[in-house]
């Protein structure tokens, strides 16, 4: 009875503390919606002066998420309106607010963009996710600063950051790099964790997640971040992402809890903000209630009579810690979020989502479920793609545009300066880098606007364009095949656009497709991990639909659908344009296997489109590039039993 009475008394104390703190915080918020922040030199005598930085308002608002008090709802709505007004083109944010004198001193950055997007919510849109995903270093980690970079080839990224190329912006960057501890190449672990939190388990790149986790496991959190000099800030984002389904972060639970408990025992928290973050992390990770009680008592004892907690430094000007930013508002909101809703009998009752799905059954009669197709404007077209693996969309090119496509090919052949031979080939595989680039650039001008009428470019990106070339010959049939996987097809769907540039029929090698075959064939495949159909050639040909096509017609195919074309017995080259489309917010996946790969396994690498194409030509990736996964290799050859069972199951599913 005594323990129950003590718990009841502490619950009442926590409730009163939270209400007092929320009332104080509401009076501190400015009419604009901004929460106050301050900055000061830290080496000499401190002189805290008002400053206006976006991330303090964003983090303060985020700390109140889930706190169901009337004041907190009103505060979050006001801060959302304020932060929305601070947003710049393409949904990016900078460190300083627009009204601040130093607003243009820094470029847009990944940290403010992620945190402000989280605070604003769905009204921010998702266009900036594509830009964040492009803003990564060769190891797959997010750069802190969003700058034009030669290695980032994304046209949308370059366009969004075009103002950074102006003379005025360049002059400001010189000031920044010369007079601060910032560098264009900065990569910071808490920044990466915040971006991962924003992107969520569906979009967060494995390489970035793995790097953050490895830093925590190595205990080098402080060394790997220039600005957040407190590991509890990092742990907060990790714990939230673990709750939201990042399984790798969930695996850090015991390690993080043990470090926080050790810090609590030794008085190792440098500020009220660190203490509040630590309590919130324990609750998110469903830690031992006794450990939570210890931190809750410490936090209650440090609350000031007026209801707030101390002005805690939340951000530094670099590893030297010679300059800092602080905010009572952020400390107080974080404490509110950590304490609100505590029940001493039910600490940390939030269940974890594993973030994983069972892999599709490998039995031949089991179809992969119809996956939601993203990025296709017309829902009926999307459904047809999910069900059948292809859709014909009619003629999209004029006769003049078809002729222009043929001219591009003729110029490419001239630049190759060699015979094209009599075998079928795809220009993505030709060795001349400059010719491949020319083809993609010219076809993009011709075809990208046409394809954009069918897709939503925020969700689906046209990665590159090439030619599929079949010279006149009776010996140039590539045979039934699947196009290379561009993404992890267990989680997402990529497509190929096929646009004939001559009329096609049974005599010149037109397209044949096996409807629904993407649902029972290999999801892991590439140039180096082929899937073959030699055992079922007659069955595939019998099951396929023949498309007699008009020049300029657009056909979209799911990348895994079985298709083929017979020999070209005409007198002219059979020419088609060929486009690769993939979801714009997830990394490409490149599968590889050779004699160095463990038997029965496949190496999976993350890639952008340039590195994907390079690996097609180079073979095994450089030793510095490590696979993100080692997967079981699927059976290479389609057996008659598996094919016929899949064909029957598809027919039954379609009624």
TrEMBL record:
Name listed for the protein in its UniProt record: Unannotated protein
Gene Ontology MF terms in the entry: metal ion binding; oxidoreductase activity
Pfam families: PhyH
């Amino acid at each position: 009875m005594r323990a129950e009475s003590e718990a009841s008394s502490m619950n009442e104390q926590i409730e009163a503390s939270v209400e007092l703190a929320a009332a104080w915080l509401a009076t501190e918020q400015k009419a604009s919606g901004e929460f106050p922040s301050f900055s000061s030199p830290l080496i000499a005598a401190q002189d805290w002066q008002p400053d206006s930085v976006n991330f303090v308002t964003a983090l303060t608002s985020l700390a109140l998420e889930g706190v169901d008090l009337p004041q907190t709802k009103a505060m979050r709505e006001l801060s959302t309106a304020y932060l929305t007004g601070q947003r710049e083109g393409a949904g990016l944010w900078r460190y300083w607010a627009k009204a601040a004198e130093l607003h243009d001193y820094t470029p847009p950055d990944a940290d403010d963009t992620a945190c402000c997007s989280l605070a604003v919510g769905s009204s921010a849109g998702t266009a900036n996710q594509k830009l964040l995903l492009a803003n990564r270093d060769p190891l797959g980690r997010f750069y802190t600063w969003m700058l034009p970079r030669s290695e980032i080839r994304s046209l949308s990224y370059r366009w969004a950051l075009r103002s950074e190329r102006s003379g005025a912006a360049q002059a400001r960057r010189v000031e920044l790099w010369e007079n601060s501890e910032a560098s264009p190449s900065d990569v910071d672990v808490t920044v990466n964790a915040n971006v991962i939190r924003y992107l969520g388990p569906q979009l967060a790149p494995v390489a970035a997640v793995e790097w953050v986790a490895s830093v925590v496991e190595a205990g080098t959190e402080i060394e790997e971040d220039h600005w957040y000099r407190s590991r509890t800030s990092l742990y907060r984002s990790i714990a939230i992402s673990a709750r939201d389904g990042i399984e790798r972060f969930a695996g850090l639970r015991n390690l993080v809890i043990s470090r926080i408990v050790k810090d609590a025992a030794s008085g190792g928290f440098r500020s009220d903000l660190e203490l509040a973050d630590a309590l919130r992390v324990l609750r998110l990770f469903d830690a031992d209630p006794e450990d939570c009680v210890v931190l809750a008592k410490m936090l209650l004892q440090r609350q000031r009579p007026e209801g707030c907690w101390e002005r805690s430094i939340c951000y530094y000007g670099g590893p030297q810690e010679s300059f800092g930013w602080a905010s009572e508002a952020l400390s107080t909101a974080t404490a509110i979020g950590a304490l609100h809703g505590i029940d001493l009998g039910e600490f940390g009752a939030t269940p974890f989502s594993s973030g994983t799905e069972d892999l599709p059954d490998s039995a031949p009669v089991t179809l992969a479920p119809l996956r939601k197709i993203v990025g296709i404007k017309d829902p009926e077209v999307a459904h047809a793609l999910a069900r059948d693996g292809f859709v014909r969309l009619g003629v999209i090119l004029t006769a003049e545009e078809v002729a222009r496509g043929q001219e591009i090919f003729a110029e490419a052949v001239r630049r190759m300066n060699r015979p094209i031979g009599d075998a079928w080939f795809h220009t993505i595989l030709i060795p001349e880098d400059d010719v491949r680039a020319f083809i993609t650039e010219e076809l993009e001008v011709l075809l990208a606007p046409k394809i954009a009428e069918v897709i939503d470019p925020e969700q689906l990106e046209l990665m590159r364009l090439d030619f599929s070339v079949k010279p006149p010959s009776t010996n140039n049939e590539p045979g039934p095949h699947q196009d290379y996987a561009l993404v992890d097809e267990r989680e997402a769907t990529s497509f190929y656009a096929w646009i004939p540039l001559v009329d096609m029929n049974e005599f010149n090698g037109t397209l044949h497709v096996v409807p629904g075959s993407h649902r029972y064939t290999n999801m892991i495949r590439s140039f180096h991990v082929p899937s073959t159909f030699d055992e079922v050639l007659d069955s595939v040909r019998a099951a396929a639909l023949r498309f007699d096509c008009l020049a300029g017609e657009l056909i979209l195919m799911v990348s895994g659908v079985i298709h083929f074309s017979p020999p070209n017995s005409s007198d002219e080259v059979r020419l088609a344009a060929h486009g690769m489309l993939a979801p714009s917010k997830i990394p490409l996946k490149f599968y590889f296997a050779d004699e160095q790969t463990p038997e029965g396994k496949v190496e999976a690498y993350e890639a952008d489109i340039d590195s994907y194409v390079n690996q097609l030509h180079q073979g095994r990736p450089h030793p510095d590039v490590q696979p993100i996964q080692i997967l079981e290799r699927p059976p290479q050859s389609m057996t008659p039993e598996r094919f016929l069972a899949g064909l029957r199951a598809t027919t039954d599913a379609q009624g």
